[in-house]
Amino acid sequence: EVQLQASGGGLVQAGGSLRLSCAASGFTFDDYAIGWFRQAPGKEREGVSSISSSTGFTYYAESVKGRFTISSDNAKNTVYLQMNSLKPEDTAVYYCAAERMAIVAGIPTLPPLDQWPQYEYWGQGTQVTVSS
Fold it and tell me: Among 6-10, 60-64, 95-99, 105-109, whose mean pLDDT is lowest?
C-alpha cells in the first residue's frame, strides 16, 4: 500500500521557518518524483518544489526560490521542505505527492511542477499558517 505522510506544518510569524516532512512507503523511492504542492483557500493548487531522489535534480516555483529548500533522505524514504523567510502568502495546505518518473535517454526525468495533476499518489496535507 502506497502511503505518503506529510507533517511539520504549523503557525509561524512572518520571517520564521518551518520544515515539512514527507515519509513515503509502498513504492520504490528512487523511481519516483516527490513534490510539494500547496493550496490556499479560494485558489488553485500550485507546485512548490519537487525532487528526484535518484538524480538530485530539483524544481522550485519562482515564488519560493531562495527561501525554500527541498532535500531527500533516501535511507529514510523521506523528503523534506525547509521553508525560511516565510510570508503570509505562503499560508496554505501543503501536500506531498509522488509520480513515477519517465526514463528519458536512460535517466529518470523529473516532471515540471505544472504537471502536478499527473502525480499519482497524494498525502493528506499539512496546514501552514504564516501570520503577519
Answer: 105-109
Q: Give CA–CA dist 55/108, Å, rounded.
A: 7
pLDDT mean over 34-55: 95
Q: What is the DSSP string of the chain?
A: --EEEEE--EEEETT--EEEEEEEESS-GGGEEEEEEEE-TTS--EEEEEEETTT--EEE-TTTTTTEEEEEETTTTEEEEEE-S--GGG-EEEEEEEEEPEEETTEEEPPPGGGGGG--EE---EEEEEE-
- Rounded Cα gap, residues 90 and 84, in angstroms: 11
